[in-house]
């Protein structure tokens, strides 16, 4: 989706701004949503555990990111913090399977369970043309 928006001429800043607006609306609602935590041993339970581990890791990285922004590249402390950040980013790569499971297992399951379906742009265009044709046929039939 993001690639399509970029190819249509939207800037990263425009996309980010809109996503932030959406999150500002959705997140408070989700935080208030009453739900039962999944039972230990279920796939969803482990996905949540992985997500929490990733969140913790990224929160721990924040201090090094803030610190390195205050240091000069020639300083000894800079090299130390940079090495720590490199190790942190290598650790982030270990979370890629989590996102693959989310994308390839969880999202298709939710789409099926909730009744969502992905419609391609080509299908959407075809549906719009069919609707226009039907509306035109109704107008013409009313003139007869």
* Proportion in helices: over 70%
- Average per-residue pLDDT, rounded, comes to 82
Low-confidence stretches: none
* Structural class label: mainly alpha
Order of helices and strands: HHHHHH
Strand percent estimate: under 5%
Radius of gyration, rounded?
24 Å
- Please report the distance between the alpha carbons of the first and last residues: 45 Å
Query: Quick one: overall form?
Result: extended
Largest sheet: none
Number of helices: 6
Number of strands: 0
Query: How many discrete structural domains?
Result: 2
Description:
This protein is an all-alpha fold and 144 residues long. The chain has helices at residues 2-7, 12-32, 43-68, 76-93, 96-114, 121-143. The chain folds into two domains: 1-35, no CATH class; 39-130. 1% of the residues are buried.
């Amino acid at each position: 989706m993001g690639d399509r928006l970029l190819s249509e001429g939207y800037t990263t800043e425009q996309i980010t701004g809109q996503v932030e607006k959406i999150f500002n609306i959705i997140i408070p609602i989700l935080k208030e949503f009453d739900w039962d935590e999944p039972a230990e041993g279920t796939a969803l339970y482990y996905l949540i555990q992985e997500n929490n581990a990733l969140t913790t890791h990224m929160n721990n990285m924040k201090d090094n990111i803030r610190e390195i922004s205050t240091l000069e590249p020639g300083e000894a402390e800079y090299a130390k913090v940079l090495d720590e950040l490199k190790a942190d980013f290598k650790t982030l790569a270990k979370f890629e399977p989590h996102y693959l499971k989310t994308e390839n297992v969880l999202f298709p399951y939710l789409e099926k369970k909730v009744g969502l379906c992905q419609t391609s742009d080509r299908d959407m265009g075809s549906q719009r043309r069919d609707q226009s044709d039907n509306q035109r046929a109704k107008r013409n039939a009313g003139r007869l």
